[in-house]
């Protein structure tokens, strides 16, 4: 399933930050978002993930295809690593829950931590668990916002491999990151899409 | 020319500024005429004596307390359906006015109730309903105040207004069921043979019109202020974005 | 859907989940009332249904800020919103979990506390029935309030201010059933009204809560 974004404008706090963003992500490819802090990477990702409405433009092929990983991992401290993953697998309604969970645990080298409560994990381990969650959703398009924060070098390597495997098996990904993961795909620099200050128009736009 | 043209903030501001002096003037004149007529040129009631005259404050404020909520409900629906900012801001502007009208109705009612029923407060259905209405106003205003993003605040408060309206009506029936009450029936109604005497009703009508005009003037004025405030915030946000 | 409910229950029952807090609060309120109004048993018997209803209502209110706020803070709510479940189902399950972990224990313990307040013999059955019928409405309305205030830093007090007026009809009919039951009067009308409010709230409010949550997630 190809994700096609056409002429998308996104807003943050009712102000347009990016406009005219267009791209397509075909299966097997990753799109790497670049751009300085505050340019609107998170806003764009949230909009594509369907968490906030687009100001203008269209997004096709995203409906029920997206697994989203944000800064917060959505982990419950009193549940064990395995229970956390199992919960998300069930919520996303995948068929072979147990298999998927153990696969995801292996992918991110979490097997030895499987029965430990998430509260006792280190920041990097939590991050790995949060990323492992993407695998149990069964969704083809992974949208990730700064996924490598607090990961060590070997974990970043491992993460890049997992994403590469995901791409090879027909998935796709959209990643906002500052480091080079060596993935097959295109880069998109958002700087050129920054919304120019509009002329104040007369109607309700007078507020923007 | 379409009515929706006034949903344009600029058009709203210029028009309301032109109309406002007239509305203020009319409101002041009618309210004054109504109150002076009512207070000094009506006879004392044979049962209630001169206490009856508080009716000229009590009934119009109670009327506006309820109508202000209706206006907010309508404005909220317009915001949800058509997303005109002015509509949301008008609802925001009307809430404190409505709340004050509710307080006036409650206080004048208490002052009237003391000599008539021998008590400042009675858990009578009408009084209780107004108290509950006041609580709804408080919640609505507090929600507006608590949320920073103006569009989010407008969305959330309008949904609260919708849900609140249903529960306000439910409370009204619940309260009626809970206590049958002391309060007299409506003093004025169109389908009743026996209304209060013309000597009272005529100045009362004038007062009601006066309060309605006063409400209109206050809401127009406050909406203008809210529009300016909103615009100022938007300009500051733009500046931050560009800077 | 069941997985979500199961997880919420699991979280509530594990350490730090706050299960039992509402119950303890309910107990304390009921114990404090006789200190405030005096120990005369006739007086306590007369006000018992109302006190028990108010106590249950406040205990429900106390735990509302946990319904959605925790999931909001750790980002689960964002992730749930991208899941195949509609938000309406999510908020319904959240209300359900709140009801099971907070309201149901209150209903179960209420006859015991009725003994403390000298509730007349005929009142126990109707007290339990009225709480059983009324508390679902309290949970659903409360979830709506929690959804409204979910993104706010000091939402707790505002939540009470928003939710308490919405609780008025439920409280009136619920306490009326308990009161009439205790006095041996006919309870049909308020009972039906109470059931009606609960059913209508359950049917309609999840949509309002989901709409509000969608706005707050933006």
From TrEMBL, chain A:
<dbReference type="GO" id="GO:0022857">
    <property type="term" value="F:transmembrane transporter activity"/>
</dbReference>
<dbReference type="InterPro" id="IPR005895">
    <property type="entry name" value="ABC_transptr_haem_export_CcmA"/>
</dbReference>
<dbReference type="InterPro" id="IPR003593">
    <property type="entry name" value="AAA+_ATPase"/>
</dbReference>
<dbReference type="GO" id="GO:0017004">
    <property type="term" value="P:cytochrome complex assembly"/>
</dbReference>
<keyword id="KW-0067">ATP-binding</keyword>
<keyword id="KW-0472">Membrane</keyword>
<dbReference type="GO" id="GO:0005524">
    <property type="term" value="F:ATP binding"/>
</dbReference>
<dbReference type="Pfam" id="PF00005">
    <property type="entry name" value="ABC_tran"/>
</dbReference>
<dbReference type="InterPro" id="IPR027417">
    <property type="entry name" value="P-loop_NTPase"/>
</dbReference>
<dbReference type="InterPro" id="IPR003439">
    <property type="entry name" value="ABC_transporter-like_ATP-bd"/>
</dbReference>
<keyword id="KW-0201">Cytochrome c-type biogenesis</keyword>
<keyword id="KW-0547">Nucleotide-binding</keyword>
<protein>
    <submittedName>
        <fullName>Heme exporter protein A</fullName>
    </submittedName>
</protein>
<keyword id="KW-1278">Translocase</keyword>
<keyword id="KW-0813">Transport</keyword>
From TrEMBL, chain B:
<keyword id="KW-0812">Transmembrane</keyword>
<dbReference type="GO" id="GO:0020037">
    <property type="term" value="F:heme binding"/>
</dbReference>
<feature type="domain" description="Cytochrome c assembly protein">
    <location>
        <begin position="13"/>
        <end position="183"/>
    </location>
</feature>
<dbReference type="GO" id="GO:0015232">
    <property type="term" value="F:heme transmembrane transporter activity"/>
</dbReference>
<feature type="transmembrane region" description="Helical">
    <location>
        <begin position="159"/>
        <end position="179"/>
    </location>
</feature>
<dbReference type="InterPro" id="IPR003557">
    <property type="entry name" value="Cyt_c_biogenesis_CcmC"/>
</dbReference>
<dbReference type="Pfam" id="PF01578">
    <property type="entry name" value="Cytochrom_C_asm"/>
</dbReference>
<keyword id="KW-0201">Cytochrome c-type biogenesis</keyword>
<protein>
    <recommendedName>
        <fullName>Heme exporter protein C</fullName>
    </recommendedName>
</protein>
<comment type="function">
    <text>Required for the export of heme to the periplasm for the biogenesis of c-type cytochromes.</text>
</comment>
<keyword id="KW-0997">Cell inner membrane</keyword>
<feature type="transmembrane region" description="Helical">
    <location>
        <begin position="93"/>
        <end position="115"/>
    </location>
</feature>
<dbReference type="GO" id="GO:0017004">
    <property type="term" value="P:cytochrome complex assembly"/>
</dbReference>
<dbReference type="InterPro" id="IPR002541">
    <property type="entry name" value="Cyt_c_assembly"/>
</dbReference>
<keyword id="KW-1133">Transmembrane helix</keyword>
Automatic annotation (TrEMBL), chain C:
<keyword id="KW-1003">Cell membrane</keyword>
<dbReference type="GO" id="GO:0017004">
    <property type="term" value="P:cytochrome complex assembly"/>
</dbReference>
<dbReference type="Pfam" id="PF03379">
    <property type="entry name" value="CcmB"/>
</dbReference>
<feature type="transmembrane region" description="Helical">
    <location>
        <begin position="190"/>
        <end position="213"/>
    </location>
</feature>
<comment type="function">
    <text>Required for the export of heme to the periplasm for the biogenesis of c-type cytochromes.</text>
</comment>
<dbReference type="InterPro" id="IPR026031">
    <property type="entry name" value="Cyt_c_CcmB_bac"/>
</dbReference>
<feature type="transmembrane region" description="Helical">
    <location>
        <begin position="99"/>
        <end position="119"/>
    </location>
</feature>
<dbReference type="GO" id="GO:1903607">
    <property type="term" value="P:cytochrome c biosynthetic process"/>
</dbReference>
<feature type="transmembrane region" description="Helical">
    <location>
        <begin position="12"/>
        <end position="37"/>
    </location>
</feature>
<feature type="transmembrane region" description="Helical">
    <location>
        <begin position="43"/>
        <end position="64"/>
    </location>
</feature>
<keyword id="KW-0201">Cytochrome c-type biogenesis</keyword>
<dbReference type="InterPro" id="IPR003544">
    <property type="entry name" value="Cyt_c_biogenesis_CcmB"/>
</dbReference>
<comment type="similarity">
    <text>Belongs to the CcmB/CycW/HelB family.</text>
</comment>
<keyword id="KW-1133">Transmembrane helix</keyword>
<feature type="transmembrane region" description="Helical">
    <location>
        <begin position="157"/>
        <end position="178"/>
    </location>
</feature>
């Amino acid at each position: 399933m190809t994700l096609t974004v056409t002429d998308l404008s996104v807003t943050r706090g009712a102000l347009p930050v990016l406009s005219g963003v267009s791209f397509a992500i075909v299966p097997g490819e990753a799109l790497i978002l670049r751009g300085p802090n505050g340019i609107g990477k998170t806003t764009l990702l949230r909009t594509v993930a369907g968490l906030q409405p687009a100001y203008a433009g269209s997004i096709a092929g995203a409906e029920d295809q997206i697994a989203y990983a944000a800064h917060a991992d959505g982990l419950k401290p009193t549940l064990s690593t395995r229970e956390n993953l199992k919960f998300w697998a069930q919520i996303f309604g995948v068929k072979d829950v147990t298999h998927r969970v153990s696969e995801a645990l292996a992918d991110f080298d979490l097997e030895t931590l499987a029965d430990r409560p998430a509260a006792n994990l280190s920041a990097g381990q939590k991050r790995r668990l949060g990323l492992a969650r993407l695998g149990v959703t069964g969704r083809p398009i992974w949208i990730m916002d700064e996924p490598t924060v607090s990961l060590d070098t070997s974990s970043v390597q491992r993460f890049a491999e997992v994403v590469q495997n995901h791409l090879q098996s027909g998935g796709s990904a959209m990643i906002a990151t500052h480091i080079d993961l060596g993935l097959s795909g295109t880069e998109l620099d958002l700087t050129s899409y920054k919304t120019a200050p509009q002329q104040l128009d007369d109607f309700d736009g007078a507020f923007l | 020319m379409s009515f929706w043209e006034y949903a344009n903030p600029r058009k709203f501001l210029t028009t309301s500024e032109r109309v406002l002096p007239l509305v203020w003037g009319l409101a002041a004149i009618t309210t004054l005429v109504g109150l002076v007529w009512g207070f000094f040129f009506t006879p004392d009631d044979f049962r209630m004596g001169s206490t009856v005259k508080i009716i000229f404050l009590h009934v119009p404020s109670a009327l506006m307390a309820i109508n202000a909520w209706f206006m907010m409900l309508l404005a909220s629906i317009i915001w949800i359906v058509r997303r005109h900012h002015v509509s949301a801001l008008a609802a925001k502007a009307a809430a404190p006015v409505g709340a004050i009208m509710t307080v006036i109705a409650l206080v004048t009612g208490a002052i009237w109730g003391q000599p008539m029923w021998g008590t400042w407060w009675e858990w009578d259905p009408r009084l209780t309903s107004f108290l509950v209405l006041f609580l709804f106003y408080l919640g609505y205003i507090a929600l507006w105040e608590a949320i920073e993003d103006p569009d989010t605040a407008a969305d959330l408060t309008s949904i609260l207004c919708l849900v609140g309206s249903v529960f306000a009506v439910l409370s009204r029936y619940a309260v009626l069921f809970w206590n049958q009450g002391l309060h007299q029936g409506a003093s004025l109604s169109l389908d009743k043979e026996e209304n209060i005497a013309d000597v009272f009703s005529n100045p009362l009508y004038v007062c009601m019109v006066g309060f309605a005009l006063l409400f209109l003037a206050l809401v127009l004025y406050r909406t203008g202020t809210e529009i300016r405030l909103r615009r100022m915030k938007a300009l500051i946000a733009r500046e931050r974005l560009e800077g | 859907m069941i997985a979500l409910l199961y997880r919420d229950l699991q979280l509530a029952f594990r350490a730090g989940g706050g299960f039992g807090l509402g119950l303890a609060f309910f107990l304390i309120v009921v114990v404090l009332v006789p200190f405030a109004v005096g120990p005369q048993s006739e007086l306590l018997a007369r006000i018992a249904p109302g006190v028990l209803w108010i106590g249950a209502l406040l205990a429900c209110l106390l735990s509302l800020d946990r319904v959605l706020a925790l999931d909001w803070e750790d980002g689960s709510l964002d992730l749930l919103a991208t899941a195949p479940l509609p938000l309406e189902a999510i908020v319904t399950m959240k209300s359900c979990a709140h009801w099971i972990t907070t309201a149901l224990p209150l209903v179960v313990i209420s006859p015991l506390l009725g003994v403390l307040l000298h509730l007349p013999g005929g009142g126990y059955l109707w007290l339990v029935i009225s709480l059983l019928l009324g508390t679902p409405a309290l949970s659903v309305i409360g979830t709506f309030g929690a959804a409204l205030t979910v993104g706010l830093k000091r939402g707790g007090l505002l939540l009470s201010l928003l939710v308490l007026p919405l609780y008025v009809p439920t409280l009136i009919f619920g306490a009326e059933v308990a009161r009439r039951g205790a006095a041996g009067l006919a309870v049909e009308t308020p009972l039906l009204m109470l059931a009606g409010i609960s059913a209508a709230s359950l049917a309609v409010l999840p949509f309002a809560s989901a709409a509000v949550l969608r706005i707050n997630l933006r």
